[in-house]
Structures are given as structure tokens and as C-alpha cells.
Amino acid sequence: MITAVEERQAGTEAYAPAVRIANKGKRLKKLKGYAPPVLLFLFILALWQSSNKLFGIEPYLLPVPTRIAQAMVDNFSSLMQASYMTFIASMGGFALSIVVGVLVAILMAQSKVVERSIYPYAVVLQTVPVVSIAPIIIVWMGPGLNSILLISFIVSVFPIITNTLTGLLSTEHNLVNLMTLYRASWWQKLWRLRIPFATPYILTGMKISSGAAVIGTIVGEYQAGIGGSDGGLGYVITVAATQLRMDYLFAAAIVSCVMGFIVFILVNMISSLILRNWHESSVEMEN
């Protein structure tokens, strides 16, 4: 007599080939999705490599990828040291923008009067060119890490404030009224309802702010950076441009782009881990 367990195992074994075929088809479909951008990248790379001969562009104006790669190899240690300093500064500014941005948004969400009072100053942080106020920051705080952190914070805090405020104000009013009916405190409404509802908005702001923090750090290093082993990528780019070392300049610029991309991917992975089991956007993305 066949037991229920044996019958279930037999059914699973019968469907195993179909499951493997379906998984293989999904993997092939995923690989095909990567084909167009990879082919376009290879085409651009080949065109760039032959640009000196095809278009007569001088190497000192546009170095070919092989020369840029050689510059990366020759200056690998200095680029990695500068990348480390830039990464530390950008993550510090990014973390500060998350803490301050979320707290300011929570404060603004409690009262329209507070929102109207604070929001214009948040807009000022976004619209005022950082280059124009960087000299003031340097005079106040001196060159170095503190000034760079503040510049990175100014550039990256606005997306956190606006997205968090939008999420907090978009909380379902019926749920808020229900918690009021059950005599929930202000803190309970905030912690158990408003913040969970605003979490996708906060994470979206973090995705935007992560790239802005790297940009703000490099801009800060242009203005307030110091040389030597404490110099970041902004300082390296400035020195390379001054010395007209275009291959080294391109190498530093590419490394900074890769850093921004890596930071964005890390934040995106954290967002997916937090939202994948309950939010529709991440569930649809996985399917």
C-alpha cells in the first residue's frame, strides 16, 4: 500500500524535469535581457579604442581605453587609497543625511505650520549651488574631512526629506482613525503605522541620496580636500587635470563612477531585502 508521503514524493519526482526546464528557461531569458546593454557597451568600447585613427582625435585629448587601463594599473595603489577616503566621506555624509532627513520629515509631518516653516529652508539646501557656499564652509570648518562631510550632507539630504515626508503624509487616513479609535498614542501611530507605510518612500529617497552623496563628496574634495594619503578622488582628479595627465584623469573619473554605481547597488539590495516579502514593487520585480 502506497502511503501519502510516498505518493507526494513520487509526484515531486515526476515534476522535477519540468521544474528544471522551467528554471533553465528563466535563466536563459534573464541572460538575454543582459545581451543588449553588453553588446552596446562593447560597440562603444571598440569605437572608442579606434577613435584616434578613425576620427583623428589626439590621444592627449581622448586617451583610448587601453591607455586608461594601463594608467589604472600603474596608479592602482593611489587610486584605491583615494577611493577609500572618498567612500568613507560619502558614507558619512549619506548616513548623516538619513538621520537628519528622517527626523526633519517626521517633525514636518506633525503640523502644517511646522512644514511651512521648515520646508523652504530644505528647498534652499537643494537649489543653492554647493560650489558657491563651499568657500564659506571651508572658512568656518577648515579644509579636510569635516567640510567634505558637510558638503556631502547638504547635497544628499533633500531627497530623504521630501520622500520621507511624502510617505508619512500618504498614510491611509482610515487606519490612522482606527488607531485613534483604539486610543493609540502619537508614538504608537508613528512607529506602528506611519513609518512602516513610509518605508518604501524612505528607501526610494535613499537610492537617490546615495548617488548624490558620492557626487557631493567629490565636489567637496575639489574645494576642501587635502593632499597626500588623505586625499580623495576629487583631489586626484584635480591634480591629474592640472598636470594634463588625461589617461590618469579618465581612470580616476571611471573609478568614481564605479563607486557611485556600487553604492547604489548596495542600497538597492538593502531595499529589496526589506521590501521583498510584503511590498508590491519588490514582489513584482522578483516575479
Automatic annotation (TrEMBL):
Against InterPro entries, the record matches this protein to: MetI-like, MetI-like_sf
Could you tell me the keywords of this UniProt record?
Answer: Cell membrane, Membrane, Transmembrane, Transmembrane helix, Transport
Q: Does the keyword Hydrolase apply?
A: no
The places in or outside the cell where this protein is found are: Cell membrane
Which Pfam family, an example, fits this chain?
BPD_transp_1
User: Which PROSITE patterns does the record cross-reference, listed alphabetically?
Assistant: ABC_TM1 (PS50928)
Q: How does it sit in the membrane?
A: Multi-pass membrane protein
Spell out where the chain crosses the membrane: 34-51, 84-109, 121-142, 148-169, 248-275
Chain ranges of the ABC transmembrane type-1 domain = 83-267
Please name the PANTHER family in this protein's record: ABC TRANSPORTER PERMEASE PROTEIN (PTHR30151:SF41), ALKANE SULFONATE ABC TRANSPORTER-RELATED, MEMBRANE SUBUNIT (PTHR30151)
Q: Which family does it belong to?
A: Belongs to the binding-protein-dependent transport system permease family.
Name under which the protein is recorded: ABC transporter permease
